Amino acid sequence: MTKTISANAISSVLNYRSPLVEVSSLDGKTIHEAVLCECDGFDLGLGLIFDDGLFALIGHEASCCEITTICDLDGALEDLVGRTITGTAIFQAKGENLDPEAESRTLMLMTDREPVSITFSMTQTCNYSMALRARLHDFGALGDCPFIADAKVSVDKTEDTATADNLDEAPAGDPRLRVYDETEIDGPFPSMGTKWTDEGAAELAGLWTSGAAMQDICAAIGRTPAAIMGRLARDGVIDADHPYAKLFAERAAQRAAQREEIKKAA
């Protein structure tokens, strides 16, 4: 689950007079909370609350009539909590699931855990470039930041986004091992974007081996079919060549390539 705060709440403390800095200037800061800025059902920016009371809203500020939203989140925002930012990188990103007319940027936040990547998509109606920067407000002390109390929990709808091109055909055998259309399995999926626990993995394995239907498993575990199969394969309950394996392999390769680019640039 991902915490969100409303754009109205943020606009009450951030304005054009608030310092606007490069994202790299946040290196070395320790994150107390990570949230998404939401307006009318769309995630517009990433909010980071730091231990020293500083709040940073990362995103693209419109120069004219462009519209920018977060279209993909790779990793769990909760993995950033309590971690110190060791580096940031921004990549131009074009993906199969993005509007071909849209420009996009992927922000990678690195800590001593797995990095978290956030992809912003900007639909352009003019010739302005897409820059990701951070707008700052210093509350002076962590306890004075109102966003900690205001944050609400929402479902991360961007997990396990898949297309026909990056999915494999289902192997013969268990009929549950197949690609599921997003309309087949009813949400919500309240555990999306959160880390697996040992208890959750054990519950999943038990449900699967008992022959439970995918709909019932998703409802009990709170995750999508892709996440279900990914965990089952990781734990050796099902074969590694499940229908979503190609999608996961492509994502892993993309992250590895991005890390290599960072090493070369260092």
Fold and architecture overview:
The protein is an alpha+beta fold and 266 residues long. It has 2 domains: 153 residues, no CATH class; 91 residues, no CATH class. It has 6 helices and 11 strands. The strands form 2 sheets. It has a 7-stranded mixed sheet with strand order 2-10-5-4-3-1-11. A 4-stranded antiparallel sheet has the order 6-9-8-7, with no helix packed on it. Strand 3 and strand 4 form a beta hairpin. The longest helix is centred in the last third of the chain and has 21 residues. It is elongated.
Structural class: alpha+beta
Order of helices and strands: EHEEEEEEEEEHEHHHH
Question: Shape from CA axes?
Answer: elongated
What would you report as the Rg, rounded to the nearest angstrom? 19 Å
Straight-line distance between termini = 34 Å
How confident is the prediction overall: mean pLDDT?
76
How many DSSP E strands? Answer: 11
Element layout with pairings:
Blueprint: E1 2-6, H1 7-11, E2 20-22, E3 31-39, E4 42-50, E5 54-59, E6 67-74, E7 87-92, E8 102-110, E9 116-123, E10 133-138, H2 147-150, E11 152-154, H3 198-209, H4 214-221, H5 225-234, H6 245-265
Parallel strand pairs: 1-3
Antiparallel strand pairs: 1-11, 2-10, 3-4, 4-5, 5-10, 6-9, 7-8, 8-9
Short overview:
With 266 residues, this protein is of the alpha+beta class.
What are its keywords?
7-stranded mixed β-sheet; 27% strand; 23% helix; 11 strands; 2 domains; alpha+beta; 266 residues; 6 helices
